[in-house]
Amino acid sequence: MNEPVQLTAADAGQIAAFTRVACPFDLLSTGSVERSLFYEPDDPLLVLGVFDGGLDAVAAGVVRGENAWVKLLAVHPRVRLQGIGAALLERIEEFARANGASSIHVGNSAPFFVVPGVDPRSTEAVCFFQAKGYKRTGDAVNQSVSLNALPEPELACRTAGADELAAIMPWVREHYPHWIAEVTRAVDLGTCVVCEDVGFACYDVLRDGWFGPMATRPDLRGKRGVGTSTLLTALHRMRSRGYEHADIVWSGPLLFYLKTVGARVNRVFWWFGKKL
Fold it and tell me: Which residues contact 115 (CB under 8 A, 6 or more apart)?
């Protein structure tokens, strides 16, 4: 194996092309790589690549306080089972320890993540992490929704700017502090819609075709149709971008999405972690 080299956002296009052969369930665009993998404004990030003519493997890790995450680990099919993945994982774990982490997890590196866990259809990945001492710690699901024939929202919604962000931030900070970074990022990208100052929905924040997060001020949930309207407005915006389907990523209220837009679970992710 050649010595790994550090990658930057300038390599996003090459990584996107690499996912076409190495990540059959996660075919990323260049923009998705830039937003989900490289955008880490506050925390230490290491992205490594192994080259032998072309890009043979990619590994990425991020540290958030005492916890670290493997954001991505993928090896080209033609060079698997040669110890490349194991060597890269060791480098990521060393990086995590050096930056103060005492635990490491796989995938679910919110607020900025490439995937919300390990897709168990990638059976080799499941077995690999188990062999390296990682234990299952939880799971997550995505739901898929068709963007054809969507109903129109009943309440007016608009694109959020700095003023709208400031207006929703008091209740977001109180009830959904884990989404502040993603919502702020969505506002910067122009991909957050709000209904007055009582609800928001975001899309295309981390990856193309991904919906979320969204929330309604808790005292109004289920009372005025705020959540339904922000959801539909965001999905219509996604349809206008040319998508035929959207993934509601790391979905929580499965029944709400099923009843409102017919969204069904289309992906399952397993969480893994271990002490360092």
Answer: 26, 72, 107, 269
Q: Which residues have C-beta within 8 Å of that of residue 85, sequence separation ≥ 6?
A: 57, 59, 73, 75, 128
Do 147 and 235 touch, CB atoms closer than 8 A?
yes
Question: 80-127, pLDDT tens digit by residue?
Answer: 999 999 999 999 999 999 999 999 999 999 999 999 999 999 999 999
SS3 254: helix
Residues 127 and 17 occupy one common structural domain: yes
Asked if pLDDT for residue 1 goes beyond 90, the answer is no
Angle at which helix 226-240 crosses helix 254-261, to 10 degrees, equals 60
Q: Is the peptide bond before 111 cis (omega within 30 degrees of 0)?
A: yes
pLDDT in tens, 150-177: 999 999 999 999 999 999 999 999 999 9
What's the start-to-end Cα distance of the chain, in Å? 25
CA dihedral 20, 182, 242, 122 (to 10 degrees): 30
Q: Is residue 255 part of a domain?
A: no
- Tell me the torsion sign for CA atoms 256, 252, 12, 55: negative
**252 within domain boundaries:** no
CATH of the domain at 184: 3.40.630.30
Please state, in angstroms and as integers, the Cα–Cα distance from residue 136 to each residue in 24, 118, 133, following that order: 22, 10, 10
List, in order, residues 6 or more apart from 107 with CB less than 8 Å away: 69, 70, 71, 113, 114, 115, 116, 117, 118, 269, 271, 272
Q: Which domain holds residue 208?
A: 149-243
